[in-house]
Design a protein that fits this description.
This protein is of the alpha/beta class and 284 residues long. The chain contains 11 helices and 9 strands. It has a 7-stranded mixed beta sheet with strand order 3-2-1-4-5-9-6, with helices on both faces. The chain has a two-stranded antiparallel ribbon with strand order 7-8. Strand 4, helix 6 and strand 5 form a beta-alpha-beta unit. Helix 1 packs across helix 9 and helix 9 crosses helix 11. It is globular and about 55 Å long.
Length: 284
């Protein structure tokens, strides 16, 4: 949901979206990032991530998945090249000033893959790319190349984990995401919603030269305290950047709130069941 819930990509044409990147990163960290906790837990449990694991998180965002791995005893390295504001929050979360130096000794957070490997350090035993793909046109662009560049840092046979949206009929949020396409119609093709395909993850893994070795599905419901929190959380994913560029914040907020209305419960909370898929591939 990286990470995050898709890779943040600006439209290829037109103005940059009128957003506050620091506020956007806070909304991701405080509201949206936690929606993918069941995915992180399922992967770590299946791969037995714990003491002795050296995990490389690509697109680590504000670091929640890394924090969960570190709490299991893993040494973690996070790379976040596209969202420096999220990386700053990850540093606050995983490398707090005055924290226990021993607890922090196995944690590194960097903004380039070239800085991910320490000299003479052991190879990584797990690589993750948790930002789900499969609901935005072009959201996997460049991912295969990134994985191909990262896998030399991992040992032979090390698992590489990719994540993606499940079938639209099992993702209630799909109906809300269509708002982004409707509002960004002048920029259609640059960030427009599309239906997730069955082999999205497999195609990326194969292009990266990885050997496919299993998959799974995880329920990741999106739950919010109210509509305002849901609007802020969903916008923090970057899915609505093209819509904001084509219209404005107020229009996007209004249409998002209307689309969320069917998912609002009597107590004012918003609840949308979703299913996400993960793929485990291996370094050849």
């Amino acid at each position: 949901m990286t990470p995050t819930l898709v890779r943040q990509r600006l439209p290829r044409a037109g103005r940059a979206p009128r957003v506050d990147p620091c506020a956007r990163a806070r909304d991701w960290s405080e509201i949206q990032e936690r929606m993918l906790v069941p995915l992180y837990e399922a992967v770590y449990e299946r791969l037995e991530v714990g003491p002795g694991s050296r995990l490389l998180g690509l697109g680590c965002g504000s670091g929640l998945a890394l924090l969960m791995a570190a709490s299991r005893g893993a040494a973690v390295t996070g790379v976040e090249a596209s969202a420096p504001e999220r990386l700053a929050l990850a540093r606050q979360r995983l490398l707090p000033a005055g924290g226990d130096a021993r607890a922090r000794s196995g944690t590194r957070l960097v903004d380039t893959l070239a800085d991910a490997r320490e000299a003479r350090s052991p190879v990584f035993t797990v690589v993750t790319a948790f930002e789900p793909i499969g609901c935005l046109a072009g959201d996997a662009e460049g991912l295969a190349g990134l994985l191909a560049s990262a896998t030399p840092l991992a040992g032979r046979g090390a698992p590489v984990v990719l994540a993606g949206w499940g079938p639209p009929e099992r993702c209630a949020t799909s109906s809300v995401l269509r708002v982004a396409t409707k509002l960004a119609d002048p920029l259609r093709g640059a960030g427009s919603w599309r239906q997730a395909l069955r082999d999205d993850l497999e195609e990326v893994a194969q292009r990266a030269g990885l050997r496919i070795d299993g998959s799974g599905r995880v329920a990741c419901p999106f739950g919010y305290a109210d509509v305002d929190s849901a609007v802020r959380g969903l916008k923090s994913t970057g899915l609505f950047d093209a819509a904001i560029t084509a219209t404005d914040q107020a229009q996007v907020d209004k249409e998002l709130a209307e689309a969320l209305h069917p998912h609002q419960r009597r107590d004012g909370t918003v609840w949308m069941p979703n299913v996400f898929r993960y793929l485990i591939a291996r370094v050849p």
